[in-house]
Amino acid sequence: MRLWDFISVRISLGLTLGILLNNLLNLSSLYWLLPFLISIFLFGAILKMRKYNVQHIPNITFFLNSILLGALVHSLTLPINQKLHYSHKTTPNPQQLTLTIQSELKPNDYARNYIVSVNSLSNTKTKGLALLNIAKDSLRKQSLEPGDQLVSIAKIKSVTNPLNPYQFNYKKYLAYQGIHYRIQLRPEWFKKLDKKNSSIYTLSANYRNKITSRLKTEGFGSEELGIIQALLLGERNGVNKDVLEDYKKAGAIHILAVSGLHIGILLLLFNILLKPLERLPHGNQIKLLLGLLLLWTYAFIAGLSPSIVRACTMYSFLAYALLLNRPTNTFNLLALSYVTVLLINPLNLFQVGFQLSYTAVLAIVWLHPKLMLLWYPKNLFLNKVWQLLAVSITAQLGVLPLSLFYFHQFPGLFFIANLLIVPFLGVILGLGLLTIVLSMLQVLPTVLVNLYNTLIRLMNHIIKLVAEQDAFVLTDISFDFSEVILSYTFILFGVLYFSKPKKNLFVISISALGVFLGVLLFKDIEASKRIYTYILHQNQQNVLLHQNGFLLNCYTNNSRNPYLIKNYMVAERIKLVNTQELQNAYTITHKNLFRIDSNLVLPHKNFKIDYLWLTHNAKINLNRLLEQHKPTMVIADGSNYAFMSALWQQTCLEKKIPFHDTRKKGAFQFPLDNN
Asked: What is the largest CA-CA distance in the chain?
């Protein structure tokens, strides 16, 4: 059968287009519900009138139904379409809130971060998720875990947009998780209630916390424990930053993300464990049920992430089909799991892990058999090595454009890391599960702890050796969405051409490659002509950026932050960065910029100021400065207190001088010189 003949494939494509369509339009569910019901009615009428079999359902009608269904289910995730969503009750003033901790995020230097559900607002029952930031306080340490309920009086604020050019869009990232607002608290501003509010996700998180707490008492090293949490429990928050970076550089980060690889290995282990049941009456059915029960129990403990649900769903369909001795098609099973996951939560489509997971599996299923046809070694050892290498290559090829788009780097030695680690992953996972079970039963022997510690250390050491080969790690690769589309077009039609050589396939593939190279050349030429100058928004430092083609001059009072301008460098194709100490006076596009900070270095009375830059809560008489120098613009960056910026803004308003607060308006871009 052709792929298009599978109903699941048609639904998958239509569902995807519908979700993307409503993500673009953000329409109310009412706009989609009526057309969807009409299309279903017409669909049924066509079936009844013409007596079509399922195999002969008109493709266009069915495809339209799928698009409308996708748009409808996506619209139901928007706050505007949720009658009880707390956003309908928010006011600019503080309100009484009842919150339930859903999960804990990675903390930063200033706050502990949680995803919470808002259960009530001003004594009115509500629903919806929010981001909760609780300021760190060494004197008030209160542990919170999923299921805990809090009562507080606080403001609900929108998540801020990016304030600097090419900054990571945290607002969009949270929106794709159904979170549109944030709540900021101090430890003394809330009270924890005695009762807990449990859901399947909070129960899952609590089980993981219990397992982690138990493992901490067994003598595992901190690095090893972090790897165990990531490898078996789906939590990467505990992994050391340097270790995580090593896995990224080695192209083995997927090992630390519980996904199809892990689920497949575990299903194989469960099948071996339950094989004696086949001797019993109805043993195959009992084995299937127990195997799926164990699989979904593990998925529950590991957090039910989209990649885990996808893998478990696909393997569940596969196991059931094998039990019935029905012919199966992997693309059909993959599409069925894809539809299931998106119907449960259509926002999964926008999760990077979800996209990479499905793309990798699709590439393996489609490309691996074709690659094996090129060479099939008769030697058993070579055959197994080639199979593993082929899987790694096809998966990497499938996710390459997306990886470059999201992470801007390519690990050239990915195949070595996978060849050295993946064959032994079954042993590592099996021993890990045994370790967890014995630890929870409080009968874990020290010899097993030492053995597993050694295994994890050895794996980390191998990954580190591969990651240290810097010459093979390509970083800071600029890659935008148009290049993603062109890359996949080239790969898709190129593979189709080599499978069935046809002139039109070759023309499309080569054309995509030609356009791709043309786009790269055009963007390089455009980047070489750009001259931009910015004052960035930073909370505790001052940054002035000046781009001249591929050269970026960064003037700052803190050069220790390598990530400050990384996204800008990648997006603008910067080839050389020159970091210098920040001065007080600059000439920019024939205009004078003067910076005043807490050191109070003031300009000479006769000095002409076009742009006045106020930093670090400078204690100045702004009225006098404005009268003496008459600047055309006053800029206050994030190093100032908010109330100081507000006072300066009021002064500028009275003097009718434009004022730019980077805390509210984002980075200030100097006008281009048109001379």
From this structure: 100
Q: Is the pLDDT of residue 52 over 90?
A: no
| Residue 22 to residue 164: CA distance in whole angstroms | 28
Give the closest residue to 645 by CA, choosing from 661, 667, 664.
Answer: 661
How far is Cα 133 from Cα 535, in angstroms, rounded to an integer? Answer: 27
Three state DSSP letters for 60-78: HHHHHHHHHHHHHHHHCCC
Pairing relationship of beta strands 111-121 and 129-135 according to DSSP bridges: antiparallel
Q: What is the per-residue pLDDT for 337?
A: 86
Pairing relation of β-strands 111-121 and 124-125?
antiparallel
Q: Three-state SS for 631?
A: coil
Q: How far apart are CA 40 and CA 21, in angstroms?
A: 19
Tens-place pLDDT, residues 232-255: 988 888 888 899 999 989 988 888
Report the Cα–Cα distance between both ends of the chain, in Å, rounded: 65
281 sits in which H/E element: none
Cα–Cα distance, 142 to 151 (Å, whole number): 14
Reduced to 3 states (helix: H, G, I; strand: E, B; else coil), residue 587 is strand
> What is the sign, positive or negative, of the torsion defined by CA atoms of 20, 24, 25, 28?
positive
Neighbours of 644 (CB within 10 A): 16
C-alpha–C-alpha distance, residues 311 and 313, integer Å:
5
The answer for residues whose C-beta is within 8 angstroms of residue 21's C-beta and 6 or more apart is 67, 70, 71
- The answer for residues whose C-beta is within 8 angstroms of residue 455's C-beta and 6 or more apart is 427, 428, 431
> Which tens digits make up the pLDDT trace of 270-315?
888 888 888 888 888 888 889 889 999 999 998 887 778 878 887 8
Interval 637-653: pLDDT, tens: 999 999 999 999 999 99
Instruction: Give which of 670, 671, 633, 639 is closest to 652, Cα–Cα.
Output: 633
Cβ 295 vs Cβ 315: under 8 Å: yes
Spatial distance between the Cα atoms of 565 and 556, rounded to a whole number of angstroms: 11
Residue 171, SS3 per DSSP:
helix
Instruction: Please choose, from the candidates 65, 87, 85, 70, the residue with its C-alpha nearest in 3D space to the C-alpha of residue 29.
Output: 70
C-alpha distances (whole Å) from 313 to each of 197, 232, 301, 305 are 28, 18, 16, 12
Task: Tell me what the mean pLDDT of segment 22-33 comes to.
Answer: 90
Separation of alpha carbons 393 and 268, rounded Å: 23
Which residues neighbour 489 within 8 Å (Cβ) at sequence distance 6 or greater?
508, 509, 512
The sign one gets for the Cα dihedral 136, 142, 147, 148 is: negative
Instruction: Point out which residues pair with 99 in neighbouring strands.
Output: 118, 150
Residue 633 has a CB neighbour count (10 Å cut-off) of 19
In angstroms, the CA 81 to CA 30 distance is: 9
- Bigger pLDDT: 204 vs 637: 637
CA dist 629 and 593 (Å) reads 12
Structure tokens at 75: 């619209």
Residue count (the chain): 675
Q: How many CB atoms lie within 10 A of CB 618?
A: 22
